[in-house]
Every structure is written in structure tokens, then in C-alpha cells.
Specification:
- By secondary structure, the protein is α/β, with parallel strands linked by helices.
- It has three domains: 35 residues, no CATH class; 39 residues, no CATH class; 102 residues, 3-Layer(aba) Sandwich (Aspartate Aminotransferase, domain 2).
- It has seven helices and six strands; from the N terminus they run βββααααβααβαβ.
- The strands form two sheets. A three-stranded antiparallel beta sheet has the order 1-2-3, with no helix packed on it.
- Strand 2 and strand 3 form a beta hairpin.
Length: 232
């Protein structure tokens, strides 16, 4: 059965796919190569999206499907509650080596995406506090204008108001602190790094028996891509 994937409004038949918007027509991407994507009509697009705005390895890179095929041919899926695998152990070691000295002796927990990774981190922070005898610690502080994912837990620690607004009755309310944003710096951008650090310390002090952790984006992505701290 052929389905028109380029429909754009009332004159087209509904799609069986629940799309991100009912107000726009979506071209059908049929192939990609490097930084380019082609739709069904042959039109070429330069892909600036970087996947979900956080990574991009290029389309049609032969080594990637080859590695996926090799792994799937040997072992498709094994639950981490029952087994480990050589490839997971090797990749975790490689990631820790890449992460630098501050992560020496650390450990990697693999997830299927960013939102799930944040949810796992929130649960891990809570579990650590409970098992350490600090059951009152449940709050996770974050920064204003931050975005940590689409799931409810991730939205609870995200500071972007527009993304949170509709779901406010369903998400937790935690404290948010400022972030280094030199274009509209709240502290004049002279010693702002220390000022923002002090703001975080005050937020922790005000919730001293409730804070379980602090989550932040080293460089903000989805909601604040241009706000990079000063060189000094």
C-alpha cells in the first residue's frame, strides 16, 4: 500500500503516523549521505539539525551499519540485570578514558536516549541518598532556561518555562539557579562565574536537608545554544 507522506493539510488523507505537528507538511526523507538528506522528489537538504540538536555523525557512513550488522548477527539484546557483554565493557572503558581525569574510577550506565539517561540519573541520585540514610533528600536543582528531556522527570528539572507550562500540574517543582549568559548577564559578566556559583550554594543552603543533586548542561543546547561563558 502506498501512503502519501507529503500531505500538508485538510485536502490530504490523514497519516497513520502521529506527527510532531498537524499544521505543517513533512517532506519524506528517503536517503542521506554525509550532511545531506534527499526527499522523495529528489530535493536535497543540508542537515543542520544534528539529530536531536545534540549529535551528528553523518548519514550513510558505511562503518556504522556494518558494525550494527556484525553485533546483531552475534547478539541482539541482553538485559543488563542478567548479563554484561564484552562490547559494553570495552565501550564503557573507552568512554571513561575519553571523559578525562575527573572520571577516573567511574562507571558507565548505558541508556537508549537523553531523556532516559536523565531519568536514570535522577533515580540514582535519590537511591543513593536513601541508601545513605538521607531519605529527606529528593530535590534536584538545575539552571534557568535549561532543557534536560521530554519525559516528566526530565521536565521537572528543566528550567525552560515554555516547555514546562502545559505539564506543570504533573511535574515536580524544584529550585532553579542562574546560568552564565554573557549577553544578558545578571552580574555584569566580570566575576559572574563566582556569583553564579554563590547562587547555587545559597539554593543548596536554603534546601540543605532536601537536595539530592544538581544537574546542568556544560554547554546549553536545545534552549540556549549561543550562551557560552566568557573565556576568563
Amino acid at each position: 500500500m502506498a501512503i502519501d507522506v507529503s500531505y500538508g493539510g485538510e485536502t490530504s488523507a490523514p497519516s497513520p503516523l502521529l506527527r510532531r505537528s498537524f499544521r505543517k507538511a513533512f517532506p519524506a526523507a528517503v536517503r542521506g549521505r554525509g550532511v545531506y538528506v534527499w526527499d522523495g522528489s529528489g530535493r536535497r537538504y543540508l542537515d543542520f539539525s544534528g539529530s536531536a540538536a545534540v549529535n551528528f555523525i553523518g548519514h550513510g557512513i558505511a562503518e556504522i551499519p556494518a558494525a550494527m550488522k556484525e553485533q546483531a548477527s552475534n547478539l541482539e539484546f541482553i538485559h543488563s540485570s542478567q548479563f554484561t557483554t564484552p562490547v559494553a565493557e570495552e565501550y564503557a572503558q573507552e568512554l571513561l578514558a575519553f571523559a578525562g581525569e575527573n572520571f577516573r574510577g567511574g562507571a558507565i550506565f548505558f541508556t537508549s536516549g537523553g531523556s532516559e539517561a536523565v531519568e536514570t540519573a535522577l533515580k540514582l541520585a535519590r537511591q543513593y541518598q536513601v541508601e545513605s540514610g538521607n531519605a529527606t533528600r529528593h530535590q534536584v536543582l538545575s539552571r534557568t532556561q535549561s532543557y534536560h528531556g521530554a519525559t516528566l522527570g526530565a521536565l521537572s528539572v528543566s528550567g525552560n518555562k515554555r516547555r514546562r507550562e502545559m505539564f506543570l500540574p504533573m511535574v515536580r517543582q524544584f529550585a532553579h539557579v542562574g546560568l552564565p549568559y554573557c549577553y544578558r548577564c545578571a552580574y555584569g559578566c566580570n566575576e559572574c562565574a563566582w556569583q553564579y556559583a554563590a547562587e547555587l550554594e545559597r539554593a543548596i543552603d536554603q534546601n540543605s536537608d532536601k537536595v539530592a543533586g544538581f544537574i546542568f548542561e556544560p554547554i546549553s543546547g536545545a534552549t540556549l545554544g549561543a550562551a557560552v561563558p566568557c573565556d576568563d
